[in-house]
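In this supplementary section we document a worked example of the pipeline. Step one takes a protein sequence of length 110 as its only input; no multiple sequence alignment statistics are reported here. Step two produces a three-dimensional model, which step three serialises into structure tokens for compact storage. The input and output of this example are shown verbatim.
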Amino acid sequence: LRGLSAGLGAATEAAPVTNREQVSRAYRGVLEAADAAGHPRQGAQTAEEFRQALEPHLATDRESLRTVTAVFVRARYSQTDPEAAGVEEARASAARVEARLRGTAAPEPT
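The serialised model returned by step three reads:
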């Protein structure tokens, strides 16, 4: 049984995550945080329309929302996989937006 279960573990490991998938995950995090904050994406909204609807609810980090949205749109609709720098840019921007939406971001400067 040990050999069988060891073999099954290898077979059920997740496939490597592409840069495109990593950007999509970062963007999904923003969608989930926005939903939890009472700003759900409407079914027919494009990423850009959602960005425009969500932006007024962010006192700061609007540029981060623009960035993660732009990187997501490029990753979603481009034929080429995003570069590692784009993935990091999306992740960092998404983290800032999520923190702001969840109320865990550093206080805004006064």
